[in-house]
Amino acid sequence: MPHIEIKTKENIYPGEAQKIIDKQTVVAVITTGTISQSAKELFDQAGIAWAENVPETEFMESEAKEEG
What is the value of pTM for the model shown? Predict the structure, then answer.
């Protein structure tokens, strides 16, 4: 089943990117850390959307909205 991979306090390099790609179910990656240029290129080639440096507060606010 397609899903979004969320990584907190993690920097993503090509090795980790390849592990995510190999799952073959990830459609997007969001991290509070950074994504190396090489990893971004791997995600782009695999058709996986990505976002980096997303503040943890963005996740907390979303969670609060869902509960409320």
Answer: 0.83
Strand, helix or coil for residue 17: helix
Domain ranges of the chain: 3-67
Nearest of 60, 14, 55, 12 to residue 32 by alpha carbon = 55
The tokens of 66 are what? 């869902």
Q: How far apart are CA 60 and CA 54, in angstroms?
A: 11
Give the position of tokens 């190999």. 22
Determine the Cα–Cα distance for residues 23 and 63; give it in Å rounded to an integer: 26
- At the topology level, CATH places domain 3-67 in GroEL (3.50.7)
Q: List, for residues 43-55, the tens digit of each pLDDT value.
A: 999 999 999 999 9
